[in-house]
Amino acid sequence: MSQTYDLVVIGAGSGGVRAARIAANLGAKVAIIEEYRVGGTCVIRGCVPKKLFVYASRFTDMFSVAESFGWQVDAKFDWPTLVANKDKEIARLEAAYVAGLEKPGVEIIRDRGVLVDANTVRLVNEGRDLSAKYILIATGGHPYVPDIPGKEHGITSNEAFHLKRLPHSILIEGGGYIAVEFATIFAGLGVQTTINYRGNQILRGFDADVRTSLEAGLEARGIKLIYETTIRSLKRHDNDVVVEFSDGTTAPYGAVMFATGRRANIHGLGLDKAGVAMTPDNFISVDSFSKTSVDSIYAVGDVTGRAALTPVAIREGQAFAETIFGGNPTSVDLSLLPTAVFAEPEVGVIGLTEEEALTGHPDLEVYVTRFRPMMNTLSTRSERVMMKLITAANGGKVLGVHIVGPSAAEMIQLVAIPMAMGATKADFDRAIAVHPTAAEELVTFKAPTYRYKDCVKV
Ligand code: NDP
């Protein structure tokens, strides 16, 4: 049977939009199906609105040092103004995404698409079938909420973007990216904020110095950290939510937010009908070219569970289109992923943690510096920036860079370039410092702070 489309994409988020646009530019006949808004999690209820909220929350830090620079500030914050302006910006970006699809001729179909077989997608509302040579699943993910009594009284990041008013206090369950980012947003906007984490330190998997520095930074901003407990149940009482913790204690909060990870959007997609295999964690299983177990079906982005990061989804979408429609087989190398946590203080990391580096490199050099950012030096604020460089022995390859402090995300993006080129400590040393900056510390490290020889710290 001849196919109507060369490509049908299910899901118009970061990965799906990029794949559709590039495929159409390469001459393919493409349709993209979206049941919600064009732009996906990142644009509509993720990275972009989150960063706008982060900007809003950071004025508190600025005000705290303003007086030391001679400013008198009498500031008031209005939450509805922020939400309305954020919504306007998101609508503008969504329109830009739509235009970016329409220009190369991608057909945008507002419906829910489900698989019928390896080459057919059904539009649930229209009841019509589309046949396609290739199908790309880019349906993303959604917040996971633990199945506890009263869970409906909690919110997730989805709802946090549209709260009618700010709560007087909030308890955030989880210790990952979303928990710490939203904790600093709420705390910065004046909400009494508590993080409740089942582990013994936030940001599991990050370098130990990053975790400790961020923890100190959160506490310095008045965020309370409760460790080794979970929420057992929630009950509503007047305008508050009463939390029962796993240790049996209870406390009321103005709101409770779950930031307990995300799951793939696969429910009812018809993956079984088409014979698409899953990973043990219930993500779509793909090879390095994003091909599923079915030759005509590919998947990119969060639904594959590789790395739930927008730039990764975009790369995967681009690589898919290049591979299938550009005659240029392209796989995505995810071995060196820079990442940032837009908390306050900010975190930027790339490469191996000290613990990870030691597993493959018994001889290491570690350079660590902690200093007050210049912005704070006129004030009494004592917070320090933390920068850490982990290299192979004798000025060898830079294996990991970890930064906590202002502009850490911007710095780590640029560090990603020499890291991708396989830079050594000697390469970093050759770079001339830009003064006065925080980043200059990365190119002016002299002797290692400590070394490892045969995995023993010396
Ligand atoms: P994360 O996986 O980062 O964190 C989830 C947290 O919830 C962990 O601390 C985890 O604990 C905890 N948790 C999981 N299940 C339970 C449970 N049943 N009860 C109590 N606690 C639980 O997920 P997020 O939701 O924060 O973010 C999802 C992903 O989105 C991130 O991993 C990241 O890839 C991406 N993201 C990226 C951002 C960025 O680039 N700046 C910003 C936001 C999200 P434990 O550590 O013990 O497993």
Structural summary, described in words:
- With 458 residues, the protein is α/β, with parallel strands linked by helices.
- The chain has 3 domains: 3-142 and 263-325, FAD/NAD(P)-binding domain; 151-260, FAD/NAD(P)-binding domain (3-Layer(bba) Sandwich), CATH 3.50.50; 345-450, Enolase-like, domain 1 (2-Layer Sandwich).
- Helices cover 30% and strands 25% of the residues.
- It is built from 12 helices and 23 strands.
- A hairpin with a 5-residue loop joins strand 20 (385-392) and strand 21.
- Helix 1 (14-25) packs parallel to helix 9, helix 3 runs antiparallel to helix 4 and helix 3 (47-66) packs across helix 6 (177-188).
- The model has no long low-confidence stretch (mean pLDDT 97).
- The structure holds NADPH dihydro-nicotinamide-adenine-dinucleotide phosphate.
- Residues 146, 173-179, 181, 197-199, 204, 230, 259-262, 308-309, 339-342 line the site of NADPH dihydro-nicotinamide-adenine-dinucleotide phosphate.
- The site of NADPH dihydro-nicotinamide-adenine-dinucleotide phosphate has 24 residues, from helix 6 and strand 17.
